[in-house]
Design brief:
With about 150 residues, the chain is an alpha+beta fold. It is built from two helices and eight strands, in the order E-E-E-E-E-H-E-E-H-E. The strands form three sheets. It has a three-stranded antiparallel beta sheet with strand order 1-2-5, with helices on one face. It has a three-stranded antiparallel beta sheet with strand order 4-3-6, with no helix packed on it. A two-stranded parallel sheet has the order 7-8.
Length: about 150
């Protein structure tokens, strides 16, 4: 883990090194385990990083015992500079990703609460592809977050 950040609504952001040869599509998910919480207990989370980024990121809302312990473990205020954060084990990616948005003239992305995470990666992907001058059918995107 190269960076952890506590956000409002009991959300923790984890950024970690992207494993070698780790290819994925925006909207896919991984299973993670933390060395500090037991390396054999994996939990699924959607990647909020986009495929062009050098690091992987997750936004995790603490709602149960494991995610609450995860948030406490990766508290930036408690990080020891000489030791860093505990190691995270990554399994994946899984899922198809949400890759059809670019095929249609208009895309409508709707997410609720922390369920918005797949769309964070897609929005980053759209910005990157547009900046590179990529051509795709999608000319308009409506993003609704409730």
């Amino acid at each position: 883990v190269v960076k952890a950040e506590h956000l409002p609504s009991n959300v923790v952001t984890l950024k970690f090194k992207r494993p070698t040869n780790f290819d994925y599509k925006s909207g896919q998910w991984v299973r993670i385990a933390s060395a500090a919480l037991g390396s054999d207990e994996y939990h699924p989370f959607t990647l909020t990083s986009a495929p062009h980024e050098d690091t992987l990121s997750l936004h995790i809302r603490a709602v149960g015992p494991w995610t609450n312990n995860l948030r406490k473990t990766y508290d930036p205020a408690k990080m020891l500079p000489d030791f860093g954060y505990p190691k995270v084990f990554v399994d994946g990616p899984y899922g198809e990703g949400h890759q059809d948005w670019y095929r249609f003239p208009v895309a409508v992305l709707i997410g609720g609460g922390i369920g918005v995470t797949p769309f964070a990666a897609i929005l980053k992907d759209i910005v990157q592809k547009s900046a590179q001058g990529a051509k795709f059918n999608c000319k308009k995107v409506y993003f609704l977050w409730v």
